[in-house]
Amino acid sequence: MVRFYLIFLLIQGWTVLCGNNIQFANLIVEYEDGNPGSALLTFDLSWENSWRTTADPANWDAAWVFAKYRTQGDTVWHHILLSSPPAAPTGAVIDVLDNTGAMIYATASKSGNASYQQTQLRWNLTANGLENIEGLDFRVFGVEMVYVPAGKFKLGGMNTGTEVNMFHEIAPSWKRPAYSVISSDEIPVGNARGQFNFGVDNPISVPTTIPAAFPKGFRAFYAMKYELSQQQYVDFFNTLTPSQKALRDITGSTGKDTDEVLNRNAISYDDLAGGDATTTAPHVPVGYVSISDMLAYLDWSGLRPMTEMEFEKLCRGPNGPIFGEYAWGTDKIANWEFTPTLLNGSGESLVNLNIITFDAGNAGYSATTKLTTSGTGPLRSGIYSASLTLGSTRVLSGAGYYGHMELSGNQAEGVISVSHTDGTAFENIHGNGHLPANGYADVLTWPQSQHGVGTRGGHYNSSANHLRVADRSTVVITDDTPDVRYAWLQFRGVRGL
Predict the structure, then answer these.
(1) What phi and psi, each to the nearest 5 degrees, are found at residue 395?
(2) Domain boundaries along the sequence of the chain
(3) What is the number of alpha carbons within 13 Å of residue 46 lying toward its C-beta?
(4) How far from 347 is each of 300, 356, 392, CA to CA, in Å?
(5) Domain spanning 149-497, CATH class
(6) pTM here?
(7) Which helix (H) or strand (E) holds 386?
(8) pLDDT under 70: residue ranges of the chain
(9) Dihedral sign from CA coordinates of 359, 365, 366, 372
(10) Torsion of CA 377, 380, 386, 387, to 10 degrees
(11) Which residues of 383-392 are buried (b: 16+ CB within 10 A; e: fewer)?
């Protein structure tokens, strides 16, 4: 029996309570006895502050785990295709989805660290066109996700809200009540009473319906707990071919145009020498990405983009809107300049959080983000919970209803927009883990232009108004190409069910 052992990269994440990371240890790749055409990936999986609850919101966190292989010395990494797994370790569920990856989470209520020893995934060698595994390198990746239950919810804000272009139902006179999403059925867009509507700043091709296939947030789905980290982008980048790296290099002239730290982006890459990229701020969200960078990562990882309707559900859950609300469910927000310490490390925290104002959420935006030697920029994911000394709440942590972090502020959330037909053509189809040689995502229903993608939630340099849940003032990106890079752009992958 052939066994392969290796040390490999860890994908970092953070929880609501304190710093955490998904960790893999003791990886073994071996043929499966009695099952020709299959191999087993066996590893110990752990992360901190995991949960599953039967109380409201009745959800759990999970690890999305996927793997890549290559022939030793080659530059091309291939996605490992999975089949139904062996028995899960005690206390865990393993859901293999589309043979692309596995969602791993607790079987029963829990609160605390997750530790699943001898976790096994079954590799379908035949599907990958392989007969043996000798002479191969392997990498395993993990992304923290949070489950969002199926169910109805509301889009938009209050009748008298001032948020720009917010979703609403057509009603008599000037009223703009929130629109209730009660199914995944097609939603007509129009001006008749009771119909769905919204404002647009750039009405190039406004849809007349939101198709049934468009993910509205009614059906259950998983979404990344945090914005994508710099380490996660580096790990993606380092599996690309040289030509793909040239296209996805955010340190080049079309991105931040330096290997130095700029606006807290600390990724460096020597394009002349080639090799791997690195970052000295692995826990800080990535920036200087384009729409096409975003889609390429999601195709590579077996995820898909989030829609702006799903964004509002992450923030609000099944609750009705309140006037001027932010992702944490109140209309109040911290408004003093934060003082960070231990910058770029896993212990990066804030030393001056005002924890007396329990209804004011913490978020990184123009009033709170402190200028550093490398400029302004996003704070470490999950920083607010780790900086609190009297305990964490949804409001003080700046968390959405289901436990997703930094939905308001920090980095802008790249989302599929309904303001253009290029966006509403989007369907619940995920990346297959394979990024074509040209370096562009090739999922046919994903937006083919910048018009189908916008942003929600504001960022580190936004005004407070742009951080509000219902605000859609930036939901249409009007630049001429999806390859334009922005220091403040971010994305959060989804697995629809």
Answers:
(1) -65, -50
(2) 3-147, 149-497
(3) 10
(4) 30, 23, 16
(5) alpha beta
(6) 0.94
(7) helix 383-387
(8) 1-20, 201-204, 355-356, 390-391, 478
(9) positive
(10) -20
(11) bbbbbbeeeb
